[in-house]
From TrEMBL:
GO terms for biological process: microtubule-based movement. It comes from the Eukaryota. GO terms for molecular function: dynein intermediate chain binding; dynein light intermediate chain binding. InterPro entries: DHC. This is Uncharacterized protein.
Length: 101
């Protein structure tokens, strides 16, 4: 079990880091809840760090990054009005809570 969780986390991390076109809202359903949460945090951290590094050279990067985060949040919120199984609904609600905080 431990090795499996480790492999899933490594896989989602590689997917997020290696594929700039990775669509998180459709991709996180392929992973267990914990890996999806961690993936979202990795995505947020890498995007925030990138924006902070580029902030001196690009005065719009923080605005663009904030919009990306808002788009992710709104996409998660849109998921809550769809027909979801109770476990999936809890999963999306948890991701919203973590993303907001």
């Amino acid at each position: 079990m431990k090795d499996t969780v480790r492999n899933m986390i490594a896989t989602i991390n590689q997917t997020i880091s290696g594929d700039p076109e990775f669509e998180f809202l459709s991709g996180f359903w392929h992973y267990p809840g914990q890996a999806g949460l961690l993936g979202m945090q990795v995505l947020w951290t890498s995007d925030a760090e990138y924006a902070l590094r580029k902030a001196k050279a690009d005065r719009y990067i923080m605005r663009i990054t904030n919009q990306k985060f808002l788009d992710l949040l709104n996409g998660l919120i849109d998921q809550t009005v769809t027909d979801l199984a109770p476990l999936d609904r809890t999963r999306v609600e948890t991701m919203i809570t973590i993303h907001v905080h």
